Amino acid sequence: MLVSIIITNYNYGAYLQSSIDSALRQRYQHVEVIVVDDGSTDNSHEIIDSYGGRIVPILTANGGQCSCCNLGFQRSRGEGVIFLDADDVLFEDAVELHVERLKKIGVVKSNGYLQVADQDLRPTRDRIPRRLSESGDYRKRFLRRGPLAYRPSFTSGNAWSRGFLARAMPLPSKTSVGVDGYLTAIDPLFGRIESMQRPVGLYRVHDKNKGPLNPHYGPRFLRERITEHEQRIYYAASWANRLGYFVDPVDWMKRREWRLALASHALQLRGDASRAIPFLELVFAPLQTLNGNPIKTLGLIGALALTKILPRHAAVQFTDRLLIHVFGKRRRRLERERKLPRAG
User: Which of 22, 62, 68, 133 could hold 89 in an S-S bridge, CB 3.0 to 4.6 Å?
Assistant: First the structure.
């Protein structure tokens, strides 16, 4: 099985070399490395040129991550495809582990954890996501719950089958939703998901992260996350209906993850009436989390109820503290770890 590693880059020249090197150092030999540069204005082009014929370069005008992935997939030949963010790196056995799973009949995706690392790629004790769903066929659960049917990995932790991507690509490009946001919103519709309970690469944390360790979690960040979630819901529903299943995206919207429910309520408290969320929908949002800790779930239900029943001024202050805790605690933990001496 040939595997295509497609690296998408935009002004990440400071990190690009380590990403390309990790793709070229795979123990699994049948790999092609494609680097799509999205109109960078830094030194990225010089770095790409330095690899000569060892990689397939694609230089394009700025169009966004999904646009780059569409171009990279068009040029790729692999039966398995990994979309690697230019600031992340793969472990040397990542492709080998993915191939073992992609070769199984009916599998559309293999995914594993990403170990969180600081800007200098020093690993921490954290990993994303917090918990991957077990291997399985999630089609029936998907039709009931939508994209919340299972917990996927983030972009660099996934490897998709070409059969699935040939149907799913090209992805919408005029959007803020990332490639993993679209693909993980629909892949359970097409077959089995394989998960490995170990990291397959490093997720680098820096000042420009847009993912789960983003350093900014103010109103703009909250609106973007909510909008992306809504776009994923309607995208997934359109695919389900295209395949002959009849689902209601409005019903899926009510099953939002509790962090997004809290974000919606926080914006409502600040006068954004379009984000109004009913009391029961907010309070019981933690029950939508699969395999949640019962004690933690009850605590969250109580905290979310307080944000509804406290006087407005007190509710705003309490909600702000919750938001800082929810969206900032992993980033703060990383900052603490960076001050510790390296192990060994």
Answer: 22
